[in-house]
Amino acid sequence: MFKAKLLASVIAIAAVCAFNSTGFAATRCPFNGNYSFNFFDPAFNVAGVGYFTVQLDPRTKCRSGVVLPGGILNCYGSPDMIFEDFIEDGFVFLESDGEGTMEIETNSSNGICDTGTNAVELDISVVQAGKSVLFNTDGEEFASSGLIPQAGYFGTLTGRADKCFAGQISGCYDLRFFAPADSVVGDCTVCVNGAGGVTGGTCRCNTIGVSSPGGGFEFLSEIETGGYTLGENCQSSTGYLWLETSSDPICGVESAVAIDFAVAQQGKEILGACDTAEFILNNTSLRNAGFFDACSVEGFLQ
Fold first, then answer.
1. Which domains does the chain have, with CATH numbers?
2. CA distance 267 to 74
3. Using one digit for the tens of pLDDT, what is the confidence trace for 185-209?
4. How far apart are CA 167 and CA 230, in angstroms?
5. Can you tell me the distance from the alpha carbon of 56 to that of 151, in angstroms, rounded to the nearest whole number?
6. Neighbours of 39 (CB within 10 A)
7. 259: phi > 0 → left, psi -120 to 50 → alpha, else beta; which?
8. Which residue, 164, 141, 145, 163, is CA-closest to 153?
């Protein structure tokens, strides 16, 4: 009889533990952690890249939470306009369907993308069980219940954030790029060796802008060399990639380009923006095509 009661007690305890474990798993918030992102303004020569960290509260059924300090928002405009903002605060509110609002507060002298404001309010859609977030700025003059001037009042930014990856990368990535203000679109295959080197690939660019005022034109460039550095985990800054080409200049502009980028989705995805510094790695002999066209970059591992 004693053994039977003991066995029944053990089964009951195990059942309670299993229930609690299942309940905890069910309340873990899918939209949590570090996210790499990129964005662009469809009207002006502006693009950017960075990362943020979200922590939602399970006690609210994952409907509200905060943006943690430590993220970064880099914004690029041409020519040679680079603005770096460090994320200090923010909040998230979500509806049950994954639609919601995220506010990000930063600290810099020029404000986000040189708007003079250190906050931006985003309309967001959380998709793919929290792996990806689609966002765009809203047009309200003030964020946080009408108290804080926000960058979305001065520009319309749109973009995507995906789960950040802190490891090494290797292989060939298919990247697409576009300069929203200059009618420039294209794609590159960029191969990296896992040790900081760019080993080859190609870039194809199509434009109807300044380079070909009478109509469209296509450029095909062979990647000869290059290199990259990665951000430190997801808590530091974005990475830097540069490449030099032969054949046609990139988009008919220069034979080299620099990209600031972040890695997402277990190393399968790259999100980035053209760096708009005039020269590659401050090398005065290697001019950067991104100096002329701020562009948005995204792609996947082959």
1. 33-163 (2.40.128.120), 171-301 (2.40.128)
2. 21
3. 999 999 999 999 999 999 999 987 5
4. 9
5. 24
6. 25
7. beta
8. 141
